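Record 1 of the preview.
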Amino acid sequence: MDLLEKVKQKLFNQVDILDSSLNEDLVKAKVMDILAEIERKEKRIVMPNEAEAVWQAIRDELFGYSVLTPLITDPTITEIMINGPSQVYVEINGKKRLSSVKFVSEQHLMRVLEKMLQYSFRRVDEMNPYTDFSLPDGSRVNVIIPPVSRSGPVITIRKFLRSFNSIEDLISANSLTREMGEFLVSAIKSRLNIVFSGATGAGKTTTLSVLLNYLDPEERLVVIEDTAELIIDHPHVVRLEARYSNIEGRGEVTIRDLFRNSLRMRPDRIVIGEVRGEESLDMLQAIASGHKGSLAVLHADNPVDAIARLETMVVIYNEEIPLWLVQKQIAQGIDLIVQQERMKDGVRRITYITEVQGADGNEVVLQDIFRFEQEGVNEDGSVRGYWQKLGREPKVAEKMKKMGVKIKPEWFSDVVS
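->
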């Protein structure tokens, strides 16, 4: 047994590693006492650098996330994927690679997981073998454990990218063009109803978080999420989070419950972290009846699929409502769909900004305002392409003008008279 393991074994018999009131200075003193005891009993010299390395490892274990701490604090890593104690993958620049990090055992991994869960109101056990939650720094965590997982505890950590605070940051990251950025900021300020669509990890939440920074500080913002993910720097914000039922099957609070309650909270804007079920109809009815400036996230592959998913969700949970009426409410309520995709080179790009023009017969009519046209992939793996403009003012420009927004012709056309 090496020196670190000896110290940990003795220390963990003296302190509760899940105790949130642990004092760092007190624990460090205990570690130094244990090292001194080992020196006396084993008649060996512990060098200062050895003592410091032992303390740093234990500090990470008790006041950080053990072997995961270097990965979580590494700004180049965007995602951590733990497939049991012996396999930890990381994503860097959009590429997944196996790291050298390993846990001592499955029990060690579960202990670190319990440390993470300490800051949330979620739990995992055999009766509830999976959950989602957020770390204090905004990173999002998904967990699934045995017996559902045959690979041991599986933990996926999607780190919050704090480097994106403004539209300029997104432009620099090649997520969109300057014209697209200016248009989206103006659309937000014009109180358009916008759906942010894309696959998991496409960057929807990051883009929405950035755009929320451009809201009028006097607006009352009500944010509804299943798991707290959005990072919001706004002076007047109310955050609501869904709750799972307890072990007796009671106490569940759904997104729909929170949305219905939010309508009575005098919101200037409502933001839904993800639309995925029965709350879809309530959202459409609310925005169609005057709650302008609503923003929502949806999982879909493209704008057409986003509309189809909304239609399906409403019809599944409200079978008595005809499809044509659902389509009419979508056409009346939603102004824009912002589609985002994580591409082959790892860059998260806005691939479509699409307006909802209305309903015609058995379909919702869409018109792309901006669309990314991929031409190919370069030898270095980077995606080659360009954003195509509509070429004329979209219909939503009229709504924006009525809100006092000045429309720039160059947003939509390269030819400016």
